[in-house]
Amino acid sequence: MWVLCVLVFLAIAYSLVTNPRYEWDVVAEYFTAETVIDGVLLTIMLTFVTMFLGTVLGILIAVLRSSPVMPVRVLAGSYISFFRGTPVLVQLIFWFNVAALYPDISIGIPFTDIGSEVDVNALMTPIVAATVGLTLNQAAYMAEIVRGGFNSVPKGQLESADALGMSEWTKLRKVIIPQSMPTVIPATGNQLIGQFKETSLVSVLGVADLLQSVQLIYSRTYETIPLLIVAALWYLLMTLALGYPQSLIEKHYSKGTRAGTPVPLDPALAGAEEGR
Amino acid sequence: MNEPATRQQPTSEPSQVATADGHGTVYGRQLVKSFGHRTVLQDVDLDIESGEICCLIGPSGSGKSTLLRCVNGLEKVDSGILRVNGEDLGYEETDTQYRPLSKKQVAAQRTQIGMVFQHFNLFPNMTALNNVMSGLVLVKRVRKQAAAEQARSLLAQVGLDGHENHYPSALSGGQQQRVAIARALAMDPSVMLFDEPTSALDPELVGEVLGVMQQLAEKGMTMLVATHEMGFAREVADSLMFMCAGRTVEYGDAREVLSNPREQRTQQFLEKVL
After folding, report:
1. B169 and A257 in contact by Cβ < 8 A?
2. How far is the CA of B240 from the CAs of B117, B223, B235, in angstroms?
3. Among A38, B69, B76, B135, which residue has the least CB neighbours within 10 Å?
4. Residues of chain B whose pLDDT is less than 50?
5. What's the pTM value of the predicted model, to 2 decimals?
6. CB–CB of A179 and B74 under 8 A?
7. How does it sit in the membrane (chain B) (predicted)?
8. Which one has a higher pLDDT value, B269 or A104?
9. Cβ-Cβ contacts under 8 Å, A266 against chain B
10. Does the distance separating the beta carbons of B170 and A273 come in below 8 Å?
């Protein structure tokens, strides 16, 4: 088995090095080109902004989803089904063209002259459409993750908090959220990594993200493969860089829940504890 | 099923119960509770004086736990009168009506009632000390330092000095349950409820928890204990209620009920467990 793996690995490496059509010099040349770096920065920004807004909105929807009022639950549920059930690409193009549906939005107090009208076509620039589309989609996924986290807290914990007379807010902050973190954090980390890659879809709207930047270059120079390698390497680098902080956060929130966590055990007492 | 508790005129008890003087008492009349079509409590009466130890015994599913959970408001009774510490639990009587208390007011009533669960329910993300401090800091807004001091002495009282910084996962069941008792005591309750506190423990750990409970009883705490520990009931309890299928079968002096049960069902049950 080992030998086979090594052979496959060597074959790939050999091809990578000897096939001149990879054009590694071109890869190196464009790796830090200004337009590529600008694209990387835009991709990072878009990822974090939509992830942040999506998470905030997602938590809100998760709370509404477990509301005691039935219509509120249904509304939140429909939101989640709709945004999870349609392709992100379709959603992005939809938001870009939403002006066809609602040409103007007027903000103001009804039946008065106070307020202003907004031209949706001018407002929905590619970057705005990209942000709105990715945020709304992300919110639907985050809502399900957060709800799953809340549901993972044992009922006895809530009763314990109630029996101590904790307010709903204290209970949420000190009991429910910390205990749902071990399930929410890894899933959120995966969402973040997914979102990094998903932002590449916005290139269809003409947003100058990483993919769009390399596309602009290779449409001029026809060095398609080397530039796609540049983009792939950047995506890989960014997602790998996220893995480390994620593992740190996971470790922090699994405090006291698993064996082998840093529990300050008195060595003299440690022996006695094992005997349970 | 969840209509507000209807006011029923008690048959024998004084209609006006002083609110100030009921400290440490539990008073229930014709308590009824059902989940859907299943009635879990049917006309249960309860009279517990300050400092009294009352044990609830009976087969599983007889309504012991539900009764306890009603006494601290985790479950709402469908009808009947329930007063803890002399106050109507979860309701407020005004001149014209009988209306539910706000969540905040219910929470305030609960701080007076300590609850110990079968499965301990310690907060796994907090150390033993922080568990005991949680009510003081998060509910009573006591300063952290003062709370920690109080929590330390409570942990020492249940025999757990030196375990302050252990997380629940590093403690045995018996130790966890003693932390849970300390956590409930930290709120300085006037009534303590125990829901089968030793049922989830290994047999050799039962004693340490019962020991702590006995100490508490000697200090004059009002205690309502659902248990299968007949030895504890015989030694410590003042009164005893035998429940079956949501009804009170026999209720009276603990030693009397245990040694001379009048009802046949009580006799059968005791023969099996003793």
Report:
1. yes
2. 20, 11, 12
3. A38
4. 1-19
5. 0.76
6. no
7. Peripheral membrane protein
8. B269
9. 162
10. yes
Chain pair A-B, CB pairs under 8 angstroms: 101
B124-171 pLDDT per residue, tens: 999 999 999 999 999 999 999 999 999 999 999 999 999 999 999 999
ipTM of the complex as predicted: 0.84
For residues A218-244, average pLDDT = 91
pLDDT, tens only, B63-77: 999 999 999 889 989
Confidence of residue A155 (pLDDT cuts 50, 70, 90): very high
> Per CB distance under 8 Å, which residues of A are interface residues toward B?
154, 156-157, 159-160, 162-168, 170, 174-175, 178-179, 253, 255-259, 261, 263-266, 269, 273, 276
Q: How far is B266 from chain A (nearest CA, A)?
A: 31
Rounded to the nearest angstrom, the minimum Cα separation between B172 and chain A is: 6
